[in-house]
Amino acid sequence: MSQSLKLIKEHASNPKLWLVIGIGVAGIVVLVETRRRTRRGKTHKQDFGAFVERFELLPFPQPPPPAAKQSLSALTFAINDTFDVKDYVTGFGNSTWKSTHKAAEKTAVVVTALLMSGATCVGKTVVDEFSFGISGENKYYGTPTHPQMPSCKLGGSSCGSAVAVAAGLVDFAVGTDTTGCVRIPASFCGIFGFRPSHGAVSTIGVLPNAQSLDTIGWFARDPSILHRVGHVLLQLNSVETKRSRHFIFADDLFQLSKIPTQNTIYVIGKAIENMSGYQAPKHLNLCQYIDSRVPSLRLHQQSTHQQNETSILKTLSSVMLSLQGYEFKTNHEEWVKSLKYKLGCGVSDHVIAAINTTYDNIKALYKVRTEMRGAFQSLLKDDGILVIPTVAGSQLKLNTKKGFSSEFHDRTFALSSIASVSGCCQVTIPLGYHDDCSLSVSFISFHGADKFLLDTILDIYSTLQEQVSVGSYSLPLPNINGNRETSELLKEKGNAAFKERQWSKALSYYSEAIKLNGTNTTYYCNRAAAHLKLGCFQQAAEDCGKAILLDKKVRKWARNSGYGKFIFCYLISSYYNF
């Protein structure tokens, strides 16, 4: 038996030995893989490719007493590439647009409001070209990488902002939501995403896609930060009269979903059954309701020869897309026609169709919008919350044409069109993971009920979290009141998932454990191993570095001990002969 193997056998019970082995394995594989990829001319993106441009806009100074403390003090945020920042060119997700426009003379109202509240802006993020897509892909600035599932699509158009939040690069991020552009990537990235009531947040200084649908939305990992940002952007009062709440489940929409919907309905029902002020939930066939309350949409449905029950939502989504196309053409036709160049994958057809289409039924489209708002005001009144799936299926893989199929668009836009056309506020709520895919649910409340909806999330989330953790979902929600015992449980669940070769699930568990206890060396080592299995070698190297830095004794021991040298040599030999 070699000297190296004897040393390993003699000290097998020493936990530090296995820590060094873990770090050594990760280091070796990182080194080898980095060299291999360098030879192939491939490099990893910094910051998961979320940013177009990094800069720092410092917050306004804290006003002297008796002024209240700035509500977003010490928080960082990012904005997508549709927001104006003084002396920077707003790129609109397109390099040709950027090269043909001048730097902004003023900063967008939204950005200024956040700076005045104490937050620091750290840069602009990637957005689908012209905010005209839901794939999260951009041929000019690259496609951001999903922090948990690198092989999956993110959804768009505010993809970079979603990634910046999901990866922990910022505390919150701001994006635009026209046809689902905040809600969809929030769902796919497993974070909160809020689309406010139409017109509730100023769009001054933001490049328009379609004004009657455009809203300013935001992302956060923590419901309390989501709530605080909302109070700033919506200019809300901190005090509101307590009122009851009643949930309405759109049963027909959950039947369309490909995710485990019965779990969602059960979890929410259990969460509210013993909470004060929450009435027993009701159930509704939403398609039938819309069909009976929006007569102009029914006429539009007849003109397109779509007569089955669920086709009413496809008709609604076609109205949404027609409105978007008409207003985009009004805003940007002159510029698009002045330049002849190839647009991004999946975007070119949309833009060309919008510019070339003749819109003869505009008044009828706007009438649908007006009737939808009235119908939802009648349905939800002043205490109703509609519960629907955020998306109808799981993430799609990168580099697949399925992402642009009619089925994908139909199912996605059918759900997102409800809030987009009615102007209601909607929040995407993460519900963990199932089969290596993130799960979410959406709450919708009536136009103008933004504070009511934000307060509801803050009120219900911890209870919802408890129900998910004991339910049959694969991963519990982030525990905002977590402790070391909970983080250890998450680590053990991660280990179990790792043994089952469920790398993404294991990575998620370890990441949640780190959120609860970021000083545990083992958690970083374990997550590094999961990163390696997923091919995220740069992230693995970063976690290994954090593990070494966290424990000075381990760093010194690994440097000075003979075990480290012998084990390292043994591992190299094993790796190359594996």
Automatic annotation (TrEMBL):
Residues 70-222 form the Amidase domain. The chain crosses the membrane at residues 15-32. Pfam families: Amidase. TPR repeats lie at residues 487-520. SUPFAM superfamilies: Amidase signature (AS) enzymes (SSF75304), TPR-like (SSF48452). It comes from the Eukaryota. The keyword Membrane applies. Keywords: Membrane, TPR repeat, Transmembrane, Transmembrane helix. PANTHER family: AMIDASE 1, OUTER ENVELOPE PROTEIN 64, MITOCHONDRIAL. This is Amidase domain-containing protein. It comes from Glycine max (Soybean). The lineage of its organism: Eukaryota, Viridiplantae, Streptophyta, Embryophyta, Tracheophyta.
